[in-house]
Amino acid sequence: MQRGLRVQGLVRYLYGPGRCEEHSDPHIVAGFRSPAELEPALRADGHQDFRHLDGLLTQPLALLGERNYRKPVWHLSVRAAPEDPILNDRQWAEIAHEMMSRTGLVQHGDEDAVRWIAVRHADDHVHIVATLARADGLRPEVWNDGYRIRDACRVMEARFGLRSTAPADRTAARRTKRAEVEKAQRVGRSEAARDVLRRHVATAVAGARTEVDFFAALRAEGVLVRERFSTRLVGQVTGYAVAVPDDLSADGRPVWFGGGKLASDLTLPKLRRRWGTESLARPGPRPLSGRYVSVRTGRAVLRTTVRRAADEARTTAEFLELLQQQGLLVRSRYSRIDPDQLTGYAVAFPDTDEPVWYTGGRLGLELALPRIQQRMSNSERDAETEGDDLTPKERQAFYDDAVRAAAYATSQIRRNLATDPYGAEDACWAASDVLRVAAKVTGNRHLVRAADTYGRVARPPYGRIPRPSSAGHGLRLAARLMVLAGTPDRGSVSVLVLVSRLIALLDAITQLRLLQQRSAQAGAARAASLQLSQAATGPAQAARHEALVQPSPFQLAMAAFPDPWAPAGGGSAVGPAPIASRLPVSRRVL
Questions:
Q1: Is 0.70 topped by the overall pTM?
Q2: pLDDT, tens digit, 9 for 90 and up, residues 283-333
Q3: What is the 3-state secondary structure (H, E, C) of 431-446?
Q4: What distances in angstroms separate CA 454 from CA 165, 193, 337, 448, 480, one per listed residue?
Q5: What phi, psi does 400 have (nearest 5°)?
Q6: Could you tell me if 566 and 551 are in contact, meaning their C-beta atoms sit under 8 angstroms apart?
Q7: How many whole angstroms separate alpha carbon 86 and alpha carbon 160?
């Protein structure tokens, strides 16, 4: 659905040859009067005379005058799927009347309703054009008309046996406009700016814990970021917008997209809820680790956090403050001889029942407080802490924990298939983070495609934020661990094992979406699973996997009774995780 300024140009385009497709036999099939009365007459030279039709459509606009909409021309294109049967003029007329009725623009028996026509110039679609002014001098209401159009489409699909489409539940991302696609083609880009920004923002969100991390990750990727500040509270950030540096408007300025213009779950308030920082009075980040990581991973996270804080700090007080800002518990140790002299420190994760403390020297000799203070006092900071923060074994442990988180989430989703199909929304939402980060750190094109395809599957209907869950928290934690781990070592099997677990996870989510009767999301999950299987096994095995992920009613019923007993796909190449790997690590982890 589009809005425009002049109806005259639109009518002439619909009756013309067309710029992107052939317009054959254009004619009116429905309208505010009979099609015969509205059809433009032929002139002596064989061309059509549109003056009478132009006058009929624009006459009500003169009654409104300055009260007109800024764009008073309402244009809707209704198209059938390629495999649908060809509809005749009477059927297209019925569809057009249903569209206008359900939007509230033309009620049955309302002679003062808006004036409109439906033009058919191809077998598979019609164009509905209306001027947003009533004959009685009132301005019609068109707010949220897109959702009412979607409802009308589903009614017509059922009536004429057409391909069923998804409801307007706001799970789909904002569609790229035709002008944006053509602009990208003109400048030589393979993707429109909106799609590029959506991928960058979703990936930055997956690896961030705070707004500072989020905006820093975007700027590191070369994305322009503009923060929006409150007009009432000084310094309070209420939103953001992003832009591609070389995507410029006609006046040479960057074209900005707000988070909500990219996807419904990318607005700043919803991102704050995801990070657990929606309360502006307590803006601190959630700790990165705690209950769901192994001992080796937890220690590596602490060491990396302390090491980076030591590199950034210039004083001991600033160093300890940075540790607290990262969400860690910090305990200071003072001298027994001089109570004012700080001699050491210890850190721990706050989200465990019994915090296990690590001193700086236990994390690394260079992280003992005297060594840190010695580097701070040097006029030129040495390169002692430069280099890789993680050892190969620690990086492997990070990926092992990501595999464990994916397996645990899969078991929880399968269990919810039988008990609570809507209780696993948070895990479905968080799975997108793991896919985004895995695609970034590996650079695998199949993973990139799978992450883009899965985006719709992750979003709950109508932009609702799911209730937090242990499975969802584990998946988000896995994504942040992979950000810290970075690119895996060449030849490592960690990524292949992770991909296999993600395939099992997406298969379980496919079954969940089918059970919830969300066919569009189920189809997207199935497509993402197939793309992942291509990354792991190749096209031939991927085709076999696609046939195996079609669940039967028996498999849907038995997938989680009382506990996952076999691959819910019934023969999938990826078997169920061992029971030990499907449970979170003990609360006392370090």
A1: yes
A2: 344 444 445 567 778 888 888 888 888 888 889 899 999 888 887 889 999
A3: HHHHHHHHHHHHCCHH
A4: 18, 19, 61, 10, 19
A5: -60, -40
A6: no
A7: 10
